[in-house]
Write a structure and sequence with these properties.
Elements lengths: L3 H11 L5 H33 L5 H4 L13 H17 L4 H5 L1 H19 L5 H29 L5 H13 L1 H12 L9 H19 L7 H6 L3 H19 L26 H23 L2 H7 L4 H12 L1 H9 L8 H20 L4 H28 L6 H53 L8 H5 L1
Length: about 475
């Protein structure tokens, strides 16, 4: 077969209508995303319990206690450890799904971070907790990159926005559950065991269970074709077509075979036109967007405690705010494929800045929760829109490593956010935190709104051409 066969596979996938089987594949991928989100958001909800258990004392932190001379310690080191691991996972290992396949890495990265998180639950000092959090972060970083590339390559072009919103809806359903478990368990010691340990272990057990549910997921036909495995690519695509046609009847005729990709994908290709500009824009965007997203999501209970609310009540408020997490992507399905991706990102960033500043000035519980919910909705809108957007801007042969590279800058800034947010919180309170976040969101709007290309409704191969 010739390179045009890869283009024919893409055209066959893109002509598929919305059908139960397509959404079933997205759901299977999203089930893994559930526990990835659980593990990712663990930081915010168990941090008060870790502090209560004495994990963040200078003696317990060991070498990490050196950060205290910079005015940062405690939860800042825990956040730093996670996102330092995510940075390594995305920057250094982001290429592995391009080399070994989406499905393979999708599976084993889940097992990696589940095992590391389980070990973390049995640590007896802050240094051990931070070390295993770092190692778990490597697996989560690889998983994040793999999910983005997997979803973008499996679903038809006119459903990509909705598929990413649905993927994040399923994943973010875990946040209210995590917040509820933390509210009920973290302040307590069920059976004489610190509550935070039980919350951590439950996430690891659930992730192993989901691994078995994800086994029916096929390899990406686009990836198979890109590696010259055309017979397998045709087999997978035909199986998907047969399932969909059994539901909806006759399928539309595929469009013309899209232009096949030439050459082997390398890291150097990221720095060739038209990808150079895209890589720079997305690197700047990712570095700053994280201060807004995790500056709130990873610090909710701690920010509430800083406003004078006790640990139990802060976890209760955080649970109520967390209920909004799956609602954001669910509402987003209404506009995901109707509005240009770059404008969705820009509007969400503006909302984060405005509602964040409003949140910082509240003392009344009702308005505090209200603006926390609105801020969460905007965070989730930003999240599913940009995860879709950055996966669209690079070709199949370098999609994973390019997404890993640009996304890696958000992991670096997220690691720094543990230090930066702690610094602003310690020196200026919650208002100083959200003034800084508003500045970061202004950079997001300028970079994506001002310089980002359009992608809505276009085939991946057309965007990459």
């Amino acid at each position: 077969m010739t390179e045009t066969s890869a283009g024919a596979i893409a055209a066959r996938l893109d002509r598929l209508p919305s059908a139960r089987h397509v959404w079933w594949l997205v759901t299977l991928i999203s089930l893994g995303h559930c526990f990835e989100v659980y593990d990712l958001f663990l930081t915010a909800y168990i941090a008060p319990g870790l502090a209560k258990a004495g994990m963040f004392t200078a003696e317990s932190l060991g070498p990490f206690s050196v950060l205290a001379q910079f005015g940062v310690a405690g939860i800042g080191t825990f956040v730093f450890a996670l996102f330092a691991g995510l940075f390594v996972g995305t920057i250094i290992f982001g290429y592995v799904p391009d080399r070994y396949g989406r499905r393979t890495i999708f599976t084993y990265s889940l097992l990696w971070y589940s095992a590391c998180t389980a070990v973390m639950a049995f640590q007896t000092n802050g240094f051990g907790v931070d070390l295993w959090r770092f190692l778990a972060g490597i697996g989560i970083g690889v998983e994040l990159v793999t999910i983005d590339t997997f979803v973008s390559e499996l679903v038809p072009r006119l459903l990509r926005g909705k598929a990413f919103a649905f993927n994040q809806f399923i994943g973010f359903c875990m946040v209210p559950l995590l917040a509820l478990l933390a509210w009920l368990l973290v302040p307590e010691q069920p059976f004489g065991i610190d509550g935070w340990r039980i919350v951590v272990i439950l996430g690891s057990i659930g992730a192993i269970f989901v691994w078995f549910l994800r086994r029916p997921i096929p390899e990406s036909p686009r990836w198979l074709a890109r590696h010259g495995r055309f017979t397998e690519a045709d087999h997978v695509t035909t199986a998907i077509e047969n399932r969909v046609s059994a539901e909806v009847g006759h399928l539309p005729t595929p469009g013309p075979a899209l232009i096949g990709e030439e050459g082997e994908g390398t890291f150097a290709e990221i720095w060739q036109p038209p990808y150079t500009k895209r890589a720079i824009i997305l690197s700047v965007f990712n570095f700053f967007q994280t201060f807004g997203y995790y500056g709130f999501a990873a610090w909710v209970p701690t920010l509430l405690i800083a406003k004078g609310i006790n640990i139990t009540t802060s976890l209760q408020y955080a649970f109520i705010i967390a209920i909004a997490n799956p609602v954001g992507p669910l509402l987003g399905t209404l506009v995901a494929d109707r509005m240009e991706r770059k404008w969705q990102i820009s509007l969400a960033a503006i909302g984060i800045a405005v509602f964040g500043l409003a949140f910082s000035s509240q003392t009344n519980p009702v308005t505090l929760i209200l603006f926390g919910v609105l801020l969460t909705l905007c965070n989730n809108w930003l999240s599913f829109a940009f995860h879709n957007y950055q996966a669209e801007l690079f070709p199949t042969r370098i999609r994973s490593r390019a997404v890993g590279f640009v996304y890696g800058w958000s992991r670096l800034s997220a690691a720094l956010s543990g230090l930066v947010i702690a610094f602003f919180l310690g020196h200026g309170g919650t208002q100083a935190v959200f003034i800084f976040i508003a500045f970061a969101m202004a950079i997001v709007v300028i970079s994506i709104g001002g310089f980002g290309p359009r992608t809505r409704g276009l085939a991946l191969e057309a965007i990459s051409a």
